[in-house]
Batch of 2 targets.
Target 1
Amino acid sequence: MAGFGQRYLITLNRYKWLALAAFATCAGVAVVIGWQREPLPKYLAFGSLTANRPPVTFSATASQIQQQGTQLTVELLLADDVIKAVAEALKSNPTDIRKWAQLGQATNGINVIYRDDDAERAKAIASALMQGMIQKSLLINRARLKAVVETTQKRQVEVKKSLDDAQKKLAESNQPAERQSLEQQVANQQALYEKVQAALSDAEAAQAEIASSLGVARPPEVFPNKAPNPFLVISGIGILAGFALSATSILIVTFFVKNPQADAFREKLLTAYRHRCPLTGADADLALEAVTIEPKMGAVKATNGLILRADVKKLFEAQLLAIDPKTLKVLIAPELSKTIYNELVGKPLQLPTDKASRPSIEALAAHYRRCAWVAADGGAVKDKTD
């Protein structure tokens, strides 16, 4: 993990321009967007509408339309005609009204919110919007009722014609079997006509009972607007996103971009140890990996590294295998004593012929001390030849 952290810092130092560019882009875009956002007005007027419960209605049609009217959408309630009527009544800008008006679904109705820098104007516009929505609901209900009446009247004419035709055929028929069938047809048409007539009467009665499906549940009240400044919020998010993008971009580069320094370090170690693991004797380059003995000293000089077989390298980095700085022999953690790695215990580290490339005793000692199991020489698996 320390090795990766070191690689990350090296990559950051090399590609700091990329990190700065990513941060500047995110932060700059956020600042521009935040600057363009208009600050929220100082006051907020809040009121609510609920389903209107008119006096007892005797018309099923009226009750049905009233119920349908409670399902109105935001688009209908804040339609252009409502906004225009409120703007004309209060001599306000319709664009501003649409911009700062907000509707929200509540458990028992609709919340109406309006923001303005003037508290009285905010309350007046919110109240006018609520009354406009109530009136809009009434107009919609009346339009629906009118459509029902017209449809029922048209249906009544069609059914009356069918009844008259059936009665005429019955009057002209002299065949008993045919008359029996026609009598049944007349009876069915008569029943249907009476049903349509009843529906028409109900719809016409609803004209006197129809009302708005909405009513005021809570008159508008004005509160100070405590919402945070959008410029600060957006800018803050952009700065955080910039830091995240910078860190992520360097992380990606660390993973996927080849590190020339690491390659040079490995080549030094391969040359120093003659392309052979000094602990196992493995001599296949593809199986050998460079390991930094003391991460703080960096992967630069051969004296701070070893070239080990990949599995042995992992144990060394995990501090489950160490080199005794006094004897330069292998020690392993107790949990490895029953594994094949027990064969490495006591093996001497094969040193490079070039003394300048031999591992630093101080670095080996630092790694040795980090292995908790060798504290006070009490937990190590000793040289099996001792």
Target 2
Amino acid sequence: MKLAKSRTWIFDNPLFSKWVQYADALSDTPSGKGTSAISTLTAQYGDDDLYKILKAAERDAKSNELASRLRTDQVNHWIAIAKDPVEVYQLYDLQYAPSRLLQNPQFSAWIKYVDDLNAKHEGAISIIPTLRKYYKDAELFNMAELAKRVKETKTMGLKLDDAFVQFWINERKTPVGILTELRLEATTKMMESPLLSLLVKFTDAYNLKFPQTQTTMIETLTNAFGDEEVTKILTAVKTSDWKAKKIATELEAAQLKMWLSSGKSVDDVYDLLKLPSRSSHYDFAGNPGFKTWIAYMNTFSIENPDKVARLLSALATQFKAERPMIQILQAAKKFPSMERDAAKLQLQLAEKVFATGIPPNKAIKKVALDSVGDSVLSSPVFTKWMNYVDDFNKKNPGKEESWFSTLHNSYQWDRLDTLL
């Protein structure tokens, strides 16, 4: 049968379907002398024109069944000859569907083509290089995120994420490198960014692929931003109503574990968090790094219960001013691992302050009662201070001080009323 160039002729001709059967049957014989129908049609019309002919024929009820079968044969032919995914992408006119790419059925068909191509040839062809010809990475990340929010397109969004992860693995990228590529910055917004989840997914895949260089998310963030900056971010997120509070808490726990496993001492962590000089009269209240440091003291103490008393005594030697040291002990008391030793030393230091005979309004600051908060009245140091006020007033007639007025100067009236 003579094939004409006319696009309508081949499907209008009643002999065409018989020729297709004949050609395919001949190509399937043991001799293999025949050429399949799709190969012959491709040679006659070329991929582009044949694809358009078949697409048009699919829209006609009379030719739909045969055209659909030939379209499947055409895709299988492309897979057999390893047709470039870029060419297929363009053939599917996907370059003209920028805004709703992941919702386009042709995109799903193209993804399947690349998957089948890799399965057939045991290759590692990625969809990412093709997509990068038409989109910036930021646009693709945004597409994936929006797609994942809709049930009908969630699978495609996840597939695009996975494609990026596999592409980076094949490129032997590192988590720190990907963090930079994702343009994640050292701010609290980073913890809410969906790109952080993509980094987590990549890190998991990286650790599976390269177990000899395994890393963690907290190590990646620390390598990129430093201990102090990461601590500020995690503390800010934890103490706010951010949705990312849970992951921030998990990362902080990982941070403490990382420091402990690397053999860092309590002094080491104090220094890497760039906390104030130990010889200063610094007030730790409100310092985010201070809370993290105390949390590390707890982690260290749990692992080394026999070293707690020595640790606190050593700190008392380093911190010459009573106020910062007592603030340390006040914070340490909240953890069972340090509670007993910290409470004991705190009272000893308070007694030392009271023994100097300074006025109660100065003593209250020295023993840091003005920064205890709502639990001030239940503090054993407060009881000691109250006794000291009475003792001071007896020994210094004419210089008496009111415990209530002194306490009021440290806590506003309305707050003091609630405490009392």
